[in-house]
From TrEMBL:
Protein's recorded name: 5-hydroxyisourate hydrolase
CDD domains in UniProt: TLP_HIUase
Binding partners and assembly: Homotetramer.
Keywords from the named record: Hydrolase, Purine metabolism
Amino acid sequence: MSAGQISAGRGEGRLTTHVLDTMAGRPGAGITIVLDRLGDNGARTRVAEARTNADGRCDAPLLAGADLLPGRYELTFAVGAYFHACGVALTDPPFLDEVPIRFAIVDAGQHYHVPLLISPYAYSTYRGS
């Protein structure tokens, strides 16, 4: 496939994530993650739910193969519940409760990795590899 071509679901790609708790300097274990596909008309379709393992990762890709389709998506991370469970003193309600990350999958043949670096008052993300 040349540089400008787009794979429309050849079954090779996958979507993964990883959460790092930058306040504690460790993986964000036990965080609930929801993945929705976003339609052009504002509709959302739930396509996956998972919890991070002890390494802050999901045990399997959130989407892979034929299920990984080009389109717009939103990952939502339940970080308020995570920090509460860790015994972190939070405001009520927490400053960051759920962190949504909207992104697009253009080439279903690629690996899309969306990491989250989190603290109770800040977060960062990027397209990883």
